[in-house]
Design brief:
With 78 residues, the chain is of the alpha+beta class. The chain has one domain: 2-Layer Sandwich (Gyrase A, domain 2), CATH 3.30.1360. It is built from two helices and four strands, in the order ββαββα. The protein has a four-stranded antiparallel β-sheet, covered by helices on one side. Strand 1 and strand 2 form a beta hairpin. The N and C termini lie close together (10 Å).
Length: 78
């Protein structure tokens, strides 16, 4: 899966083809995140890299929902 636990968050970085590719995939992810009512923190850097950090804020920890969202992110970004 490639996700690592760091500072009480699940973290993973992806390198994409372009900035536009990231934006297109983020739009697809927005639909999934809204359906799940669970939204990732992310940072775009170097114009074609995106780093995600997942944590259930209500629980103040990593939960099964974070792992489910990580699988969805993998499906969209890999």
């Amino acid at each position: 899966m490639g996700w690592v636990e760091k500072n009480d968050k699940l973290v993973k970085t992806f390198e994409m083809e372009s900035f536009s590719d990231i934006i297109n995939r983020l739009n697809a992810l927005a639909e999934v995140a809204n359906e799940m009512n669970h939204h990732p923190d992310f940072e775009v850097f170097g114009y074609k890299q995106i780093k995600f950090a997942l944590r259930t804020h209500d629980a103040n920890s990593i939960t099964d929902t974070d792992y489910q969202l990580a699988k969805e992110i993998d499906a969209i970004f890999e």
